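Q: Here's a chain of 258 amino acids. Please give me its 3D structure as tokens.
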Amino acid sequence: MFGSMGGRVAERLADKVCMVNGAASLIGRAVADRFAREGAVVVGVDKLAHSVGEQVVHADLTDESAVEAMYREVVRDHGRLDVIYNNVGLMDRGDRSVLEMSLQTWRNAQEANLTSIFLACKHGIPHLLATEPTGGSVINAASFLAAVGSATAPMAYAAAKAGVVQLSRDLGVHLARSGVRVNAVLFGPIETPQQREILQRDPSVLEKRLVHWPMGRFGTLDEAAGTIAFLASDDAGFITGAAIPLDGGITEAFTVPE
């Protein structure tokens, strides 16, 4: 069952060990909470101080030795690994047109948004393959900006997220017969204080953006968490190598309702 009935959520993830990388953010916390409500053993990972998950891990997701060690620790403690949700994303204030961007801003965006997911997949997927029965789900956070052109995009961020989509696509196909599924989620605007702050730095920015949003609103944390939980579950067992839009129709729209 996708969603809830009578206030209860079906335990589609019962006894599965699920890692949430980037757990300290509001979306990370919402996903971790949804995983737990669906019966999962949740491991929350972030370099920031946090208390998310049944097991709390502090690690820099761009540090290869730290990433490798954290997976070994989790599998040692729980004996298995079933789901990896890579909830990583960073926008830099200096990230604008490449004609104005510093090389360091570009490198920071690639490290935070793409290299971190590369390392999580490189060192996490072997544990999914080693879990009996072999299989599991990897969900990588991307952005609708990876699927459209934008004159005002943070271009380093968008390029990195396009890399996440392609990496997810290739891994999904590469691993398709192993039982391990890999998908990306193209996040649109999800209602968080940080997202609103980014869009409201200039008072006219949000108004301009809303013109291009078919639903005319932000997505909710519950909607985001429910989508990730679906992809983590066996209900999504025939979905792999996909880029799932979670954007209220933005990437599919040419014109929008009046």
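Q: Can you summarize the key feature?
A: The CA atoms of residues 146 and 162 lie 4 Å apart.
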